[in-house]
Amino acid sequence: MKGRVLITGASSGIGAATAQRLAKEGYNLILTGRRSDRLQQATAQLNADYPQIQVEWRKLDVQIESDVIAFYQDLEQSGIMPTILVNNAGLAAGLAQVDEALTNDWHRMIDTNIKGALFMCKYLIPHLKNQNTGHIVQMSSVVSREVYAGGSVYSATKHALDAIHRTLRLELLPWNIRLTSINPGMVETEFSLVRFNGDQERADAVYNEVNPLRPEDVADAVAYCLSVPPHVNIPELHIAAACQATATRVRKHDGTLRG
Ligand SMILES: NC(=O)c1ccc[n+]([C@@H]2O[C@H](COP(=O)([O-])OP(=O)(O)OC[C@H]3O[C@@H](n4cnc5c(N)ncnc54)[C@H](OP(=O)(O)O)[C@@H]3O)[C@@H](O)[C@H]2O)c1
Question: Ligand 1 centre and the CA of 174: distance in Å?
């Protein structure tokens, strides 16, 4: 038995692919997100495909602190507290410059990508300290180190997540708790559909004529970081499509460059 992994944002994209990959590896799983139907379906399928592991799901909006507290209390009472957290839930909202952006988009990104990620850590860490074991994987981004026009607040949230990750490495050093930050470049998921508020054509244009990462590529990276021997930690892992040099500069199929 390899331990129990809590994945936030497991209803699509990288989180869903990570659930598939870790189920195959033999981890017990707790899948969370806001879309219950998807989580329920994925859980049923994983339990059928991998009867040797336990897969559970819970509806959870990471933005709501009181819900995160109640969620962990429920897991504790059910005897299924995780020792591994894949802190993956996140989004970009909009691509407008600061003076034209919708402030509600900023609230959603900050509340999910920073405060939500923090709530998930804060209320799990006492349990990890008690157990003197654990691993927290933050799903950050190439934009934890880069900026681009129209991406101010999304980049700021991932810069913040990077600062939180590096701080936790210092704070948790006395305990046997590993911390990893994964920084993917462009991955073809529902990310752009969410960013462009359901505009499928605009979302598709992001991935047209280029060869982005698949969510399974990032899931492989998560599995690798969890699999290293106990005396090893991968503090940061950068992963990008072969055709991508920066957040915006990408080589198209015809050899010309975008960005
Ligand atoms: N795709 C990329 O190019 C890329 C690149 C670098 C980093 N990332 C990061 O990778 C992570 C996963 O994104 P993705 O690409 O897989 O996009 P995605 O397909 O849109 O998945 C995002 C996941 O986050 C969940 N989520 C969003 N808001 C939430 C909330 N308030 N509470 C709980 N769950 C929430 C969504 O579930 P519900 O809607 O069901 O709640 C969904 O499962 C994000 O942190 C993103 O910033 C993505």
Answer: 31
Tokens of 48: 């059928």
Residue 82 CB less than 6 A away from ligand 1 = no
CB of 101 shorter than 6 A to ligand 1: no
Domain ranges of the chain: 4-258
In the prediction, which pLDDT does 205 show? 96
- pLDDT, position 55: 98
Confidence of residue 106 (pLDDT cuts 50, 70, 90): very high
DSSP annotation string for 77-99 = HTT---SEEEE----------TT
Does the pLDDT value for residue 1 go beyond 80?
Answer: no
Class of domain 4-258: alpha beta
- Spatial distance between the Cα atoms of 109 and 123, rounded to a whole number of angstroms: 20
